[in-house]
TrEMBL record, chains A, B:
One of its GO terms (molecular function) is protein-glutamine gamma-glutamyltransferase activity. It comes from the Eukaryota. SUPFAM superfamilies: Cysteine proteinases, E set domains, Transglutaminase, two C-terminal domains. Residues 11-23 have a biased composition (Pro residues). One of its GO terms (biological process) is blood coagulation, fibrin clot formation. This is protein-glutamine gamma-glutamyltransferase. Binds 1 Ca(2+) ion per subunit. It comes from Haplochromis burtoni (Burton's mouthbrooder). Belongs to the transglutaminase superfamily. Transglutaminase family. It catalyses: L-glutaminyl-[protein] + L-lysyl-[protein] = [protein]-L-lysyl-N(6)-5-L-glutamyl-[protein] + NH4(+). It holds the Pfam family Transglut_N. Residues 1-10 have a biased composition (Low complexity).
Amino acid sequence: MSDEATIAAPSPAPPAPTGPPPKVTNRGRAAAPAASANSETSDIPEYEYFIQPGPRGYPPLTEYLDISEVDMMKRPDESNKIAHHTALYHSDYLIVRRGQEFQVKITFSRPYKPAEDKFALEFVIGSSPQFSKGTYVPVFPTKQRQTTWEGRITNTSDNVVTMAITPAANCIVGKYQMYVAVVTPYGIRRTRKESTRDMYILFNPWVAEDAVFLDDETERQECVMTEMGIIYHGSYDDIAERDWNYGQFNYGILDSCLYIMDRAEMPITNRGDPIKIVRVASAMLNSRDDEGVLVGNWSGDYTYGVAPTSWTGSTDILLTYNSSKMPVCYAQCWVYAAVFNTFLRCLGIPSRVVTNYYSAHDNDGNLKTDIIMDENGKIDRNRTRDSIWNYHCWNECYMSRPDLPPGFGGWQVVDATPQETSDGMYRCGPASVQAIKHGQICFPFDAAFVFAEINSDVVFHSRRKDGTMEPVRVNRTHVGRLVLTKSPGDVTRRDITDQYKFAEGSTEERTVLEKAEEYGCKREKSSPPAADVDVVLPNLEISVGDNFELNVEFENKSDERRTVDAYISGSVVYYTGVASTEFLFLTPRVVIEPKMNKKEVAIVESKKYMKRLVEQANLHFIVTGKIRETGQIITAMKVITLRNPKLIIEVSGRGKVSEEMIATVEFTNPFSFNLENVYIRMEGPGMMEPKSRYYRLVIGGSSLTWTEYFTPQRAGTSRVIATLDCPALRQVQGQASVTISP
Amino acid sequence: MSDEATIAAPSPAPPAPTGPPPKVTNRGRAAAPAASANSETSDIPEYEYFIQPGPRGYPPLTEYLDISEVDMMKRPDESNKIAHHTALYHSDYLIVRRGQEFQVKITFSRPYKPAEDKFALEFVIGSSPQFSKGTYVPVFPTKQRQTTWEGRITNTSDNVVTMAITPAANCIVGKYQMYVAVVTPYGIRRTRKESTRDMYILFNPWVAEDAVFLDDETERQECVMTEMGIIYHGSYDDIAERDWNYGQFNYGILDSCLYIMDRAEMPITNRGDPIKIVRVASAMLNSRDDEGVLVGNWSGDYTYGVAPTSWTGSTDILLTYNSSKMPVCYAQCWVYAAVFNTFLRCLGIPSRVVTNYYSAHDNDGNLKTDIIMDENGKIDRNRTRDSIWNYHCWNECYMSRPDLPPGFGGWQVVDATPQETSDGMYRCGPASVQAIKHGQICFPFDAAFVFAEINSDVVFHSRRKDGTMEPVRVNRTHVGRLVLTKSPGDVTRRDITDQYKFAEGSTEERTVLEKAEEYGCKREKSSPPAADVDVVLPNLEISVGDNFELNVEFENKSDERRTVDAYISGSVVYYTGVASTEFLFLTPRVVIEPKMNKKEVAIVESKKYMKRLVEQANLHFIVTGKIRETGQIITAMKVITLRNPKLIIEVSGRGKVSEEMIATVEFTNPFSFNLENVYIRMEGPGMMEPKSRYYRLVIGGSSLTWTEYFTPQRAGTSRVIATLDCPALRQVQGQASVTISP
């Protein structure tokens, strides 16, 4: 080797390696990857010796207690599932709730002698189970220090020992493997891994120590046990209902819910905390960012999936997601809320779907929705970007909030509908309803956002030619007009607006809005004087396809004559408040004598709106105008939801468990035009799995009948629900109540 | 058509459409997509008429004021950039800070007549600009209602008008287009879109109305203006320094920072809020979830990128990300913190990198780090999954917190290093340092997580044969031992531990921990009695490749003889505390007379550890053991960071702006083995762009010299820094201070 070779010389840098870079491993970053899949399991050795092998190898341990059989007592009619309110789950496994005792029977090779035999039941969840993480839990027949689960022997008879186990009320929720381990001086002998001993542990609203404890049996029956729900929609003064089969007990649903957490790679150790679970789920229920459950689509084109209005329940959606591992098409807000509700009830977290009428959206926690008009009071659609949703659905779930100061437990808002402008935040909540009501929006998670959805002001701006704007009218009562949910144990609606806000105009309301402003919410400060002319739009009940008259009433409250240059505009709108097409535009000049009313009649012809209807058939009328004498601006808005034709469902048969019955769906196309590519879906909890049928063509004026046989699986009152959906007509529904005797 | 045809018949469902589904549009969901890219601009028409065209088309508007020229006064030596502290930015555009006046000169076609001419400067950002969203801002020479930016004319001379504009102190931060608009009775005439009039508006820590106002000029100079930083690493009792060139003023860095927000699709309207910006950035700086800036890699294999220890500054990383649009390989915590610091300082948010020694990690806000031992006191490495990082770097940024109750503004923790087990949360902060200190961890964002990083207990568990465990020692002072940052205006370190926690053992400290427990943090309750034998490990300064002796000192504090069955274990560890290889394992029995000390000497040979060293050359010694007489467990831990060889940098030349100088880097391979694939990197703010050189081979014992010419661009004291990196030896550094005269 020459001297030169010992002198380092720079070289051209080597070419970059080709091919895909290797997957970056966890090495160096952490001692072991965090377990984040309930579906992954670990193998626990059948023999675990404490000693070194002797010259003949390990001793066989045969002289010690051996396990012949383990009975999980998991039949729906056995005490475990009845006591734990889990008999309705269609599942081959034991399902119990935490913080509450359940029993298993162990048959040993000989009678159990408490003084000399030592055994434990071991509960294991996920890969890399650890005692300190709560993912490996040995339970002994006698009280031990450092274990939070309790065990006791409730019966011994010959070789059979009945052992009762009480899982900790804060233990991890999910699917566990169970082992029986006999401890000998030389080592441990275990049962082999055996899937029949797998079991699920769920949240327990019946037990005071559980974070989801709900001290009201009627509410628990509704918010955990009820499968058939009602979701409200339509508009504030014309409420409509949608039936929904949450199906939380259907075969495969529980596994699908656990899969959602696995797919989110949620650490197993966090799965005992309902706050963390609902937060993860609020992100995972929508497909944004994370390939979650449902793809949102508000476009009206659902060619590549199922129209949001066409779903009848959550079962199809969750089972499809679990089997395809791909987001399911398509959802709008009530579909997100309904499937989220299934997830929550299935895991045992009390929950309900609520509907907020006139929901401010996409305004990122600010308390203003801006509507821009020109100097004459005509709405400038190009510059009006904010929208107020006719309604918006979200979920409430019930839990304590140890992460917050006292007083903010109870109902919490979670929302899985992706929000467009909320800082890339395609998750929302849990936000304490109490915190929202009291304007304490500084507490996690996303309380400010929900606060704005129910408390925003609608600000009408007049835009001058030079581009500046002036607020001319502020409506402080339009948004968050009404919050509804289904009454527990009943099919009526329940107004829960007062849980979200104090009475309009009360001192408390003002204080709360000021508090929210302290936390950075921006409100419109100006209060332009009210005009002395009022304009009122009527309530109307109109069926799709009807011609009708719209009476716009102007009321002059002043002592002088008033002349209004008015703009009467009618548009087809999405339920998001976004206008699709304007089908009516009138510009009357209305002269009203002092202290008098004057009616302006607009004729609405169905041919003007029919071809432009979008799925929820909402017509949005806006009247604006300028009073000549005073320059004041007047405004009025009204959403009219057109009545769709109905599906007629008739059910016949004896109405007994396990006896076949017949459901008949009838539909008549009320229009003169044909309906193409028609899907009908039908299902009923405890009676019928989701079914669907396709009709290529339903000719104008013609009828169709679909007859379906089904066999009820359990007694009680339930409903069969159906929807009809095609590109030209959406949101057609029907339902029939059925009572089944045992 | 026959009768049959009018009766609808079910058909087989049509096949699913093939091909990729169309991109789901925004239609129906929102009136317009939210603008979320600063790089997208809109076209504002040159003429905007208020009137209908006449028979000859539109009038030409030529009789009105016309604009001949606009001077943005953007040279670094002009008043705008000097007054706004933006002269250091290498940029062709005007850069100013919000809430502070700047000036532009407009030359009209004739003298401006205030009484009859009307004009405005229009500032526009992003697509779909809107007055009500703050993305379209017209500024008039006189005060207007409803505008938050102010304008005034400061000088008129012939046809030239100098106009001063003060952007609102809460306006959107980013790149704006500017137009001059002349308003006539017939319409508006504007300047054409012209990129020379583009300008940047940044945060302004010098102005009291800005949310990032920092009322200390020394701090501002350090935390906004300083490019050359020091990041602390090593271990608590043996602190090491790393120089870093943040390079926030380098050419292209500001655009790269805006690109990061664009890539996150952060709505433009949120970009005036530093809270939202830093939260988005904490997610975007790492590549998890969102294809962000940096790929984390702790594995030791950096074949497909640059080793984290090899970077000398942020410039290369940010420019590479902006040009490739792909995550850059590789980062560990200080790289995330350093690049985040560049982002923050570049946008004008005061920020600093801090280092927390003994940082609890990946334990999801619980206050326990578990170390598992067998019944004899020997560490069970398979069951010990938690790790304590020798150090962890994060950022603090300074801002008010209007979203929280008063008292929580000021320094806020943000952390871009992805956390493994924190609920899929690859973002962290802003968390108020005040809230952390006072245990008020209920406030957003992620305060509980940071609290655990500095306040966890280390719990040693003894694991019994039946799988249950008992805590045998709790160390409440190990974690969060020291928090350091660079002193402002100096190259010394500053201990800021007391900003995060009250003195160990004080009443306040106890109260704070209790408060944190109220908010759901779980602590170890048991307090096993301290053993009466202490074990102490020495401080040592050892160079890589040295053989050395480790004296383990046992001190018997009791009045009786004590016998300890000890385990002395030495491992090579990552800075994350994760053990790579155990190179030393001794099991002495130590007998100590009453009230006496006894030394046990372990010989550490370099050949045992050299081949196994990982990049930061940390040796971790753990001594555990059981006292025979009492059954008590003793423990001691010590990290020894081996000294690496240094790079010698020498700089020669006259040391004047724009005069060429020479930097020489020298390195001698101190080992008997060869170093292969060696990269050296060098840079210096205001003097030298990042440069690198590759050496295929540096033979054992040989030296290399690299000479580089450079030309300083500005006066002042700065440093040239360099690193050497190869798979066998990492984290070799050198630096030289340079003073440049004008």
